[in-house]
Specification:
- By secondary structure, the protein is α/β, with parallel strands linked by helices.
- Helices cover about 30% and strands about 30% of the residues.
Length: about 180
């Protein structure tokens, strides 16, 4: 929640939240900076859970029932795209990032907070060993994704990024957060 508290208030304008889930980010948006939030979520059950959180915010929220690999929204229509702990579960993360780049306006920003591959060789070995079983038990979550590499290959330039182990089980707690812009063509 501390990571969300740092990142989500930076969103502004028309916002696409990829992987809205149960709406955990909604209380952290700055209602003075956000005009509307579209919550992309493939799970109807999760969108239903987010409904209560939607009622508590002072801005419009619209649910979009789809996954990140094929976003049914217009190109260059969002000022901000927000992803928090989402890239680990998207089956084709690079394709989803290319779609995110498509819907993000030139000059807009991708805000991200994700867990992924740890810098320590010992932790990374454990991530690689555990990952096949972890994916099956944790809803498709990958422990060992190269978050900066995925973002770059998805069509972005990282403009700001911080990293650290957040409290928790080390194989799942190395965190990357920051901002990225569409790569120049």
């Amino acid at each position: 929640m501390r990571q969300r508290e740092k990142l989500v208030p930076l969103a502004s304008g028309r916002v696409l939240e990829v992987g809205m889930g149960s709406g955990l980010n909604l209380p952290f948006y700055d209602a003075r900076r956000v005009t509307k939030v579209w919550g992309l979520e493939p799970s109807p059950e999760m969108s239903k859970m987010a409904s209560a959180a939607v009622e508590a915010v002072a801005f419009d929220v619209e649910f979009v029932s789809a996954g990140g690999e094929q976003i049914p929204l217009d190109s260059e229509s969002f000022d901000t795209v927000l992803m928090t702990f989402t890239l680990c579960t998207i089956p084709d993360a690079e394709r989803a990032l290319r779609e995110i780049a498509r819907v993000l306006k030139r000059g807009g920003q991708l805000l991200f907070c994700e867990h992924g591959a740890a810098p320590d060789a010992g932790v990374r070995r454990w991530q690689n060993r555990i990952n096949p079983l972890w994916r099956r038990l944790a809803g498709g979550c990958h422990l060992n994704r190269d978050i900066p590499g995925l973002i770059r290959r998805g069509g972005f330039e990282i403009t700001r990024m911080d990293t650290m182990y957040i409290p928790g089980w080390r194989p799942a707690s190395f965190n990357y957060w920051g901002a990225a812009a569409k790569a120049r063509a």
